[in-house]
């Protein structure tokens, strides 16, 4: 019924995906392997990197899907939110490609796509469900009533959860971004060794900035008594910080589930790989009688497959945009 | 001269003073270690300007964009830049010379790209977990300080 090419370039990753009738045929993210094949390096950031990456990843996505350019019936792209320069590359490419093939264009909201990533593989969540999207840049609880009827019911008022992990790593002298390293250390430590305060934020919103500061004070004060405090207690500190970040997330999620009387709960975003979050989510689900949904990791971080699946549902609805579309750094649902 | 801040409730008044002090200057650079309250103070500045949206950390996104009644605010965080050239790649000039407010965290990551005339704000940890906030116009002969009372 529909073969869709999808482009994602909202932040660091350049990615392209081919989706046929709601099934993902390929999902290519600019990696060392792609660069080795086509030359060039892997830059960390920026639109120039996207410019270098976009054609190789699209070519690779088409080849890996074993389709031809002529089979493509629509082009979906991330319109926002994100870095304007980065978004421009993907948007311009998508517009040019769609114009050349004379096929419709579909604009996608990146954060919306993170939620619709749950519809790539089975089991797919039942409506209505709550989705906790946690990454280096975002922390949101979203009430999903239908594919396109969604509402942010809680979000961070300062740092994102992933940022809290990364900055904790930095305070502890681990490399930045060090979220996964904190997780690794935390698995070996006692989560109740140290007690970090849970911020009292009204409603379903989050705050991680105060936690960051309290970790900073904690480390500073203990170092005065023992200069090797961090090295000697690394696993326990990481476990205790991780426990606090994860309980902040889960406590708000529990509150949201009660408030909206919902038992289907999903997580998305790069932080959903965190073992502490997965463990506590599973434990909470058993107690609260939740049905939980965690997408495959490749669909949690930024990727074009989620743009493709979102594009598929928009294609079914005939929801297209014209060539006059431009990217948006800020984009509401 | 500088201002000792011992409670978050003092930030709105200080934000108002800083905006007055900055006058026509639209680029403000914020120096301070992690956890000294750069984002928190910028949130207060945005609120004073009348930004309605939630102002959150741009560490991951590098720049966040907000509307206020008279224009736009660009809130930067260059923390995760590995090289100044990455700021070139994101088109930093388009923002810095747009005439809109630019609040910049971790300007030390882009030492050669900071415009000639900026307002420099320094944040430091003080006793009892207070903060000392200092501001001056950088790039001129005169160094005006923002407040004199402690």
Automatic annotation (TrEMBL), chain A:
Single GO cellular component term: cytoplasm
Q: Where in the cell is it found?
A: Cytoplasm
SUPFAM superfamilies, sorted: Actin-like ATPase domain
Q: Write the record's keywords in alphabetical order, separated by commas.
A: Acyltransferase, Cytoplasm, Iron, Metal-binding, Transferase, tRNA processing
Q: Does the keyword Cytoplasm apply?
A: yes
Q: Does the keyword Nucleotide-binding apply?
A: no
Q: Which PANTHER family match?
A: TRNA N6-ADENOSINE THREONYLCARBAMOYLTRANSFERASE, TRNA N6-ADENOSINE THREONYLCARBAMOYLTRANSFERASE, MITOCHONDRIAL
The name of this protein is tRNA N6-adenosine threonylcarbamoyltransferase
Organism, as annotated: Arcticibacter svalbardensis MN12-7
Q: What is the phylogenetic placement of the source species in the record?
A: Bacteria, Pseudomonadati, Bacteroidota, Sphingobacteriia, Sphingobacteriales
Q: Which gene encodes it?
A: tsaD
Automatic annotation (TrEMBL), chain B:
State the name under which the record lists this protein.
tRNA threonylcarbamoyladenosine biosynthesis protein TsaE
**GO BP annotations, alphabetical order:** tRNA threonylcarbamoyladenosine modification
Give GO terms: molecular function aspect only: ATP binding; metal ion binding
Sorted keywords for this record are: ATP-binding, Cytoplasm, Magnesium, Metal-binding, Nucleotide-binding, tRNA processing
Q: Does the keyword Transport apply?
A: no
Q: Which Gene3D superfamilies match?
A: P-loop containing nucleotide triphosphate hydrolases
Record GO cellular component, one term: cytoplasm
Protein localization:
Cytoplasm
Provide the family line: Belongs to the TsaE family.
Magnesium found in the keyword field: yes
């Amino acid at each position: 019924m529909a073969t869709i090419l999808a482009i994602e370039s909202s932040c660091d990753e350049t990615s392209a995906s081919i989706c046929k009738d709601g099934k993902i045929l390929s999902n290519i993210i600019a990696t060392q392997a792609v660069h080795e094949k086509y030359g060039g390096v892997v830059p960390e950031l920026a639109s120039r990197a996207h410019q270098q990456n976009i054609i190789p990843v699209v070519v690779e996505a088409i080849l890996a899907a074993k389709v031809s350019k002529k089979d493509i019936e629509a082009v979906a792209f991330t319109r926002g939110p994100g870095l304007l320069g980065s978004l421009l590359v993907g948007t311009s490419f998508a517009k040019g490609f769609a114009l050349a093939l004379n096929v419709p264009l579909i604009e996608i909201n990146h954060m919306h796509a993170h939620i619709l990533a749950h519809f790539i593989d089975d089991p797919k969540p039942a409506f209505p469900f709550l989705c906790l999207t946690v990454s280096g840049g975002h922390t949101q609880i979203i009430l999903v009533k239908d594919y396109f009827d969604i509402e942010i019911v809680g979000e961070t008022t300062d740092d994102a959860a992933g940022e809290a992990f990364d900055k904790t790593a930095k305070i502890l002298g681990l490399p930045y971004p060090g979220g996964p390293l904190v997780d690794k250390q935390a698995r070996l430590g006692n989560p109740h060794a140290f007690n970090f305060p849970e911020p009292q934020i009204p409603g379903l919103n989050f705050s991680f900035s105060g936690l960051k500061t309290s970790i900073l004070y904690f480390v500073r004060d203990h170092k005065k008594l023992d200069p090797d405090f961090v090295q000697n207690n690394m696993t326990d500190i990481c476990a205790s910080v991780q426990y606090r970040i994860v309980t902040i997330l889960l406590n708000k999620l529990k509150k949201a589930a009660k408030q909206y009387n919902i038992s289907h709960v999903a997580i998305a975003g790069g932080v959903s790989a965190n073992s502490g979050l997965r463990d506590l989510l599973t434990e909470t689900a058993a107690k609260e009688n939740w049905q939980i949904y965690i997408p495959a990791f490749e669909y949690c971080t930024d990727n074009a497959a989620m743009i493709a699946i979102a594009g598929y549902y928009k294609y079914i609805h005939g929801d297209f945009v014209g060539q006059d579309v431009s990217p948006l750094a800020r984009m509401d649902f | 001269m500088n201002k000792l801040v011992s409670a978050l409730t003092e930030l709105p008044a200080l934000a108002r003073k800083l905006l007055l002090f900055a006058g026509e200057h639209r680029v403000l650079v914020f120096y301070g270690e992690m956890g000294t309250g750069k984002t928190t103070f910028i949130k207060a500045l945005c609120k004073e300007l009348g930004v309605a949206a939630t102002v959150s950390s741009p560490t991951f996104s590098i720049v966040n964009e907000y509307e206020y009644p008279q224009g736009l605010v660009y809130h930067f965080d260059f923390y995760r830049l590995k090289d100044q050239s990455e700021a070139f790649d994101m088109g930093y000039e388009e923002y810095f010379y747009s005439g809109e407010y630019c609040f910049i965290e971790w300007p030390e990551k882009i030492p050669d790209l900071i415009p000639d005339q900026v307002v420099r704000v320094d944040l430091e940890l003080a006793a009892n977990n207070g903060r000392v906030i200092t501001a001056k116009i950088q790039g001129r002969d005169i160094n005006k300080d923002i407040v004199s009372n402690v």
